[in-house]
Amino acid sequence: MKELLTGWRDYMRAADESLTTILNIMPSLGDEPPGVMLGCCFAGEDASGARSATDPLKKLGNLVKEDVTKKPYAEGLEEAFQPEGVRVIVKNAFAESFSDELISAVSTAAEHNPDLILQIRSLGGAMKRIPAGATAFPHRNSEVMLVCPTFVRPDASGATIQESLKPWNTIAEFGKGAYSGFISTVTDRDVADIYPKETYVRLASIKKTYDPDNLFSRNFNIRPA
């Protein structure tokens, strides 16, 4: 696992900016054995460039199946649905560096927790070139975003949920912040992770000007200053 993750990281650090990849560590599902699924998107019309960008990814591990083809943007979108009979606790964090230490933590968590599902999204490119204070999204100096859905029973107790989140917590120690689109709770801590203090203060001032009564509040709410 370490070798695969390190190879993916090193390749993405030098890859064409038109290439986006998402690495998914998956448990055994049905007849499918545990493994790694790598999603990729090359944004452009250059078929040769796309092949040159994606072919090295096939050498990162033991390739079992490949399904890379040209398709319209809309066909690449997938609608997510929560399975029946379970509750999904979703956590995420950003890491400025997908360091060897973080890779080791991910590998250890996957080795000792066969039910772990972890998505690692490679970031960078144009996202990093926009100043952190230019928009409401401040976590631009990040190399990866880590997303972890944890499945529990609908009636799971708080203690059970905390126990189930232990594998994620060992990984999250290396990250910071959060992205609002991949989180299943809405707490003050979540809001603070999504909007660090400097960002929150700036947005609260804007909110006071344009929404002083906090009409738009059914979200990770920023209260008017």
The CATH first-level class comes to: Alpha Beta
The stretches of 5 or more residues where confidence is low (pLDDT under 50) are: none
Q: Helicity level, as a percent range?
A: 25-40%
Identify the overall geometry. globular
Report the structural category.
alpha+beta
Structure description:
This protein is an alpha+beta fold. It has one domain (2-194): Vanillyl-alcohol Oxidase, Chain A, domain 3 (3-Layer(aba) Sandwich), CATH 3.40.462. The protein has helices at residues 2-14, 47-54, 100-112, 126-129, 158-164, 166-172, 188-194, 197-210, and strands at 19-26, 35-42, 87-95, 118-122, 144-152. It has a five-stranded antiparallel beta sheet, with helices on one face. A hairpin with an 8-residue loop joins strand 1 (19-26) and strand 2. The protein starts with a helix and ends in a 15-residue tail after the last helix. The relative contact order is 0.14.
